[in-house]
Amino acid sequence: MLRSCVSRLRTLAVQRGLPGGAPLPAKDPWSPRVNPGAGRRERAAKPGCVRGDPRSFSSEVMHMDLSLPNPSWSEDMRLLFDQFMKKSEDGSWKHLPSYKSKFTQETEDIKIYFPDAKLMKEKLSQAQLFPRSLEEGLGFEYAMFHNCVEDRTVCIFQGGPYLQGVPGFLHGGAIATMIDATLGTCAVVAIGVAMTASLNISFKRPIPLGSVVVINSQVDKVEGRKLFLSCNIRSVDEKTVYSEATSLFVKLDPKTRLT
Ligand SMILES: CCCCCCCCCC(=O)SCCNC(=O)CCNC(=O)[C@H](O)C(C)(C)COP(=O)(O)OP(=O)(O)OC[C@H]1O[C@@H](n2cnc3c(N)ncnc32)[C@H](O)[C@@H]1OP(=O)(O)O
């Protein structure tokens, strides 16, 4: 699994224009651009760019790595990001970039599950990754790091004001979204294109709006195409456990179509 994991991360690096992979094909409109400016993101959207504004579909915004620090990140968020970037220097951890539109290896991989390739391409041209669909600082601010040796993915997450449920606290659906995204990333890096078959969450403490939390996920067991994963969400000081979850992801069968 380690070899396939490293190879998958290398493929992601190629698709995402990171060092360590062959260059992106110049004419492929589906390929993300190399992100200008290493390690820091000044602004995800141009000033005045609001939700629904066609400019938010500009290739500049769609292909920008949104997992880099931006002005909405709190000090806790920046400190944690810097800590994990430091851990990534020896290669044990890997920072996973993320984009509004995911024209990456997974997008390519999943095309075979759709009988009508043209229709699928049309749909994808307007699609955005759900947790990246809100404007900077208002919704899901997060960065993920993967450890191939330990089969773990860590997500540092700051939930913005548009994710409110009970006043002052994060909505359970928003928490579930980030749990699913973190477990899903861990699963995809480990075995390739997979979907959530079941997800069981125990919400133990409410998460204050605007706070930073750490989602720790890991692969517990692999049985054929089935991957069992678990995760918890903790406060930055690790004293509070906010949520725990277990899940089953199933690697898609190339012989089965999704539609
Ligand atoms: C970098 C990328 C980042 C990605 C992050 C994003 C993560 C987001 C992930 C999602 O949210 S995915 C969206 C929510 N999930 C779905 O919409 C999936 C809907 N379900 C399905 O499409 C299919 O049920 C599924 C693909 C999961 C499985 O269908 P298959 O036809 O491939 O499986 P099959 O029926 O052959 O079963 C294979 C094994 O899995 C088991 N299984 C399948 N579905 C199950 C289920 N729901 N619960 C328990 N076990 C299940 C099944 O019993 C069997 O076990 P055994 O091999 O032991 O017999």
From TrEMBL:
Topology within the bilayer: Peripheral membrane protein
Entry GO MF terms: long-chain fatty acyl-CoA hydrolase activity
GO biological process terms held by the UniProt record: fatty acid metabolic process; negative regulation of phosphatidylinositol 3-kinase/protein kinase B signal transduction; regulation of mitochondrial membrane permeability involved in apoptotic process
Region of interest (Disordered), residue spans: 17-52
Localization per Swiss-Prot or TrEMBL: Cell projection, Ruffle membrane; Cytoplasm; Mitochondrion inner membrane; Mitochondrion intermembrane space
Pfam families, alphabetized: 4HBT
Entry keyword Mitochondrion: yes
Catalytic activity: octanoyl-CoA + H2O = octanoate + CoA + H(+); hexadecanoyl-CoA + H2O = hexadecanoate + CoA + H(+); tetradecanoyl-CoA + H2O = tetradecanoate + CoA + H(+); (9Z)-octadecenoyl-CoA + H2O = (9Z)-octadecenoate + CoA + H(+)
Protein name: Acyl-coenzyme A thioesterase THEM4
Native source organism of the sequence: Panthera leo (Lion)
Gene that this sequence comes from: THEM4
